[in-house]
Amino acid sequence: MLDFNDPIIMLMLLPFLITIIGHGLFRYFAGEGLGHTLANSSLTIAFIITLLLFYGFPNFPIRINTDQLLIICLISLCFGFIQDRYPKISFLSPQIHIAMMILVVFWIYSIDAPFPVIRANIFSLAYITIIAIILFLKLEDIQYNALQAPVALFWAAVGLYVVSKGSDIPLSENLMMILIAALGTYLVLNFPSPKFPFGASALYPGYLIILTVAMQMYSVEPSLAFSLLILTAIFYTENIIRLLPSDYATPVIRLVMPGFPIAVAWIFS
Predict the structure, then answer these.
(1) Fewer CB within 10 Å: C terminus or N terminus of the chain?
(2) How many Cβ atoms are within 10 Å of 42's Cβ, its own excluded?
């Protein structure tokens, strides 16, 4: 029997319920076309509400990781919502997206490390920035390829949860449980065929949550660098499958393929 007083249960149940209700409300009030387009923002809203309920409102100036993550989610949600609602706005260019990634990486770094960047951290920060941009551009490339982008983010969240569990980082575990529940609910709502586009309102915050938690985990335990790097293979699952003989490109293979980098990352966590 479920214990609804258990924080772990609520971390999963709240985003599940809020995501479902949000999709219904967007569909009802915004209509079939626009409502379906904007409904993806409900999974980000679910993450934000759950984060607020469990960790409270942010204090200023920002000095705590959860406060920082909340601000990142709010800004990226607004940015993504504008992109979904007005997709032809010219200032939302790829260059702006890349600049956003760079700013987020440096801001996350500044919370837990000295700023300006000391010489010993320059190369690490450069690698992280490059990887963050490459993975973000990859997600944008597959954003509307069936459900590849949300599936990739879902498995990346599962991977970070497994690694944080193995390394005993409770905050990262909790944050990933919230994201897993929200993304999982979105995927269920789109089964067996996509109904709600995975727009920028979910893509930007979803990816930045993954990036923020990964950087926080690295800050807590630098030895996780290899495990975190292995998890990036999840974003290239479809590319890997295309290298296999056509007989192996089955739904089952697509389902279990992300488990391999997750297992390797867990072993080295």
Answers:
(1) N
(2) 27
Residue 34 CA to residue 70 CA, distance in Å, equals 26
The per-residue pLDDT for 90 is: 60
Token pair for residue 34? 């626009």
| Residue 236 DSSP one-character state | G
Report the distance separating Cα 198 and Cα 36, nearest Å. 10
When computed from its CA atoms, the radius of gyration of the chain, rounded to whole angstroms, is 18
Identify whether 114 is part of a domain. yes
| Dihedral over Cα of 213, 214, 216, 221: its sign | positive
Any domain includes 137: yes
Residue 24 lies in a domain: yes
**Residues 109/152, Cβ–Cβ less than 8 Å:** no
pTM above 0.70, yes or no: yes
Give the model confidence (pLDDT) of 131-154 as tens digits. Answer: 999 999 999 888 888 788 999 999
- Does 1 map to a domain? no
36: left (phi over 0), alpha (psi -120 to 50) or beta: alpha
Binned at pLDDT 50, 70 and 90, residue 113 comes out as low
What count of other Cβ atoms lies within 10 Å of the Cβ of residue 113?
14
Cα separation values, 227 from 126, 181, 223, 267, Å: 18, 23, 8, 8
CA distance 80 to 195: 19
Buried b (16+ CB within 10 A) or exposed e, 191-200: eeeeebbbbb
**Residue range 161-205, pLDDT digits in tens:** 999 999 999 999 999 999 999 999 999 998 877 788 888 899 999
> For the CA atoms of 73, 74, 77, 82, what is the dihedral angle to 10 degrees?
-150
